[in-house]
Amino acid sequence: MKDIIVCPHLAISTPFVANNDSVRNQMAASQARQAVPLVDAEPPIVETTLERAYKILFPDIVKAKRDCKVVFASTRLVVVQYLDDKSYDVFPVDYTYKIPQVGQIYEKDQVITYKLGYFNDDGDLCQGKNLLCSIVLNPWSYEDAIVLGSHVELTSYRYHVIERVIPESCILLSLSKRRYKIVPDVGDIVKKFEPILIIKSADPKKLLEDPEEVTLNVDAEVIDVEIVGNRWNKTVRGYDVAVLDFLQTKEKLRRKVEQEISDKQVVAEIIKRHYLFDRSRNKDIKLSKKSFDLYVRIVLRSKDEIEVGDKLTNRHAAKGVVSLITDDMYVTEDGRKVDINIDIMSIISRMNIGQVYEAIAGACIYHLEKKLKQFDDLDEAKRYLIGFYETIDNTEEKWITQQAKEQLDNINSLEDLQRLKLTFPAPPFESPTREQLLQACLYINPNLKENIHKYFESQERPLKPEEMPDLSPLLEKLTYRGKTFYATCGYVYFYKLVHMAKDKLAARGSEKFVKKTLQPTGGRRNQGGQRFGEYEVWCLLAYSALFNLEETLKLKADDVVQKIKYILKKLYDSDLDLPERELEVVRLFRAYLQIMRSRIVDD
């Protein structure tokens, strides 16, 4: 079993895991590793109760061992001082972490810092969002397509690291006439195609050449800036005061740190971590020992909005591509607009029934919170809530009910209870059974069984929307374009995966071609790769599809010269000896015009 599961701690984070196909559970673990950090990630409503335990398992969470105070924080490390014995502790981090404020005090076991988009301030695992999901036959597209509401925000973080070595023969220019600085400051918003670095050659022979501008194709926020020289005692000529200030940051940092930290080993560790430019993570970054080089490192963070073509999945591996983002979504009886729709045919073919159970469980929590707001007595509301957890408790020692009682003992007012964010505990192999889930629906809606019989008995005549009985939380009444129907609808936890449309789109190459196929060479770095490869040629040859092969390699080829040669040969029935790369598309267009005119005259 351990050889099959790709990521064990994520494999057991699936609620109702026993109701899914085993291959789907393995796929769910693999898909969870590809989740990108969301800006507003939240913990799941239907939880496995293991989300809180990850703060012990994950090294990406830094917890306070004792009561401490943050004395230094950067994108490379966080230094805390314990309040009892005044000792220090150093925690290495990177630019993906949430940087704490200097001077902030943390109690024992409190989370100091964590990776943004994967955890919250309590250290609970937060990789996605709870979306109101309807399971209806998809009329817009294929079975594994996902229809998303335009009101849903699934914005993810993306990091950009710019590392450059500026040799002694080049200088950095000011970014603009109004801002006399060579690099942006931390916190600046760099607009799309706005220069981040401007590198100019100092060679007199190259003064007329345009400087090199380093830009991004998205708006991004600067979160870290470093510019360091490999030799400190050499006089720099040609640089303004701003550069010299950056070059002196090592000594400034040392003086600043020594004011707060008395331990010389900790100070040395801070300096060492911040000036490792001889051991850069990029092996291509090398500073010359003979000349005066500058190492520039700028880290930016941008945000990616959800768009058509992006890939989503839930914890049951119901992965799919967003095929439509529309404002025309189903609406529930109480006015909630559905966030996402999954085709029911995909559940049948993939056999991941656990997501249907999760949707019903999410609906139970929503209606349970509405029920609690109707109570006027605190003790009565507590008894009602404990009764619900007793209904769904499938654990051997009934520890879910015990934990619910312990948490409710600390609540002393009805307002605090009604503001409490409830969750549906579904441990991996002790999740509620189908019978317990139905009992939970009956607990919230005692008239559910009677209403179901009433609905089936009234099938002789169609019911008006106001006559349709209440089948929630098992089924919700959804309205779409004036029609009302029942469907499974509840909150399901979804991830956004790293497979995004903007990363997949690429133009085909236009330079190097393969002689066998007349197509561009393979690989995305060759501007898109080849569209019709060598294996495809062999397949058509194997089936003797010679006319199709000729059309693909000549008429539809990416090699413009060969294409025009072929078309002109077909048009004029002659072999034209045309020089390479001297033909233009305009000439082809003129040839087509001539043919069209002759056809019109003949007719």
Structural class: alpha+beta
Helix content, binned percent: 25-40%
- Biggest β-sheet: strands ordered side by side in the sheet: 8-20-9-18-17-23
Poorly predicted tracts of residues: 1-8, 232-242, 277-283
The total beta strand count reads 25
Q: What sort of overall outline do the alpha carbons produce when their principal axes are compared?
A: flat
Strand content: 15-25%
Radius of gyration: 32 Å
Distance N terminus to C terminus? Answer: 74 Å
> Helical region count?
18
Q: Outline the biggest β-sheet.
A: 6 strands, mixed, barrel
* Overall pLDDT metric: 81
Keyword list:
603 residues; alpha+beta; six-stranded mixed barrel; four-stranded antiparallel beta sheet; flat; disordered N terminus
